[in-house]
Specification:
This protein is of the alpha/beta class. Helix content is 43%, strand content 12%. It has 9 helices and 6 strands. Strands 3-2-1-4-5-6 form a 6-stranded parallel β-sheet, with helices on both faces. The radius of gyration is 17 Å and the shape is globular.
Length: 215
């Protein structure tokens, strides 16, 4: 699928790419509205409307991914709620075999995630994902989400990358496109980010439901 002899480094998203997105979808689309409904003593429908509009207002920005922002905006202890649902944090079955294969092929493996550092730490605690990575970066360190060109320049400089010799894997076509505009040589989508939802269709980039198929 790719000219692997031209790829030195694989840049990897976390949620929906290496981890099952079911945890995040359950958390933000079910648990948060439920807790907001209880806190404000409003109907679940009204709570859903409130969070949907709140999400829409900051989509594509760093606030969208910031636990501190949501804790202040919604008045919920977002990190504590994360811990209550931590049993749903699962690594995809193909992730570790893929990461191990990359190591065997002497490819550098770097996690690029928009996840807040507290969320990242929780997910690394509940999985063995860190064992398959050489380095990692939360976009919060750069001050920009992966959707923004400044994130990519920060990341290239931090890890001394030649972007033309990198493959970036993500479940978001919007973010894949951002990486391409920034100069990343190769892109790969994940068509089944949430194990309990239908597959998604990618229009601009190749996509797989099993990472091993890209080797």
């Amino acid at each position: 699928m790719f000219p692997w002899h031209k790829i030195d480094t694989v840049l990897l998203d976390m949620d929906g790419t290496l981890l099952d997105l079911h945890f995040d979808n359950h958390f933000w689309l079910q648990l948060v509205p439920q807790q907001l409904s209880l806190l404000r003593q409003i109907s679940l429908d009204d709570a859903n409307d409130l969070v949907t509009q709140a999400y829409h207002n900051v989509v594509g920005t760093l606030d969208w991914y910031c636990l501190d922002y949501w804790q202040q905006h919604l008045g919920l202890d977002i990190l504590a709620l994360h811990h209550t649902a931590a049993d749903k944090i699962k690594i995809r079955q193909d992730s570790m075999p893929f990461l191990q294969a990359l190591a065997s092929a002497s490819k550098r493996r770097i996690l690029f995630t928009n996840a807040h550092p507290h969320s990242l730490a929780l997910k690394l605690t509940h999985t063995n994902l860190a064992e398959g990575l050489d380095e990692l970066l939360s976009s919060h360190e750069s001050g920009y989400p992966k959707e923004h060109p400044n994130f990519w320049q920060y990341a290239f400089d931090k890890f001394k990358l030649d972007p033309a010799r990198c493959l970036f894997v993500d479940d978001s076509e919007v973010i894949l496109a951002a990486s391409k505009r920034a100069g990343v040589g190769y892109q790969l989508g994940i068509s089944n980010p949430d194990s309990q939802k239908p597959h998604t269709v990618f229009n601009q980039f190749p996509a797989v439901s099993d990472l091993l198929r890209s080797l």
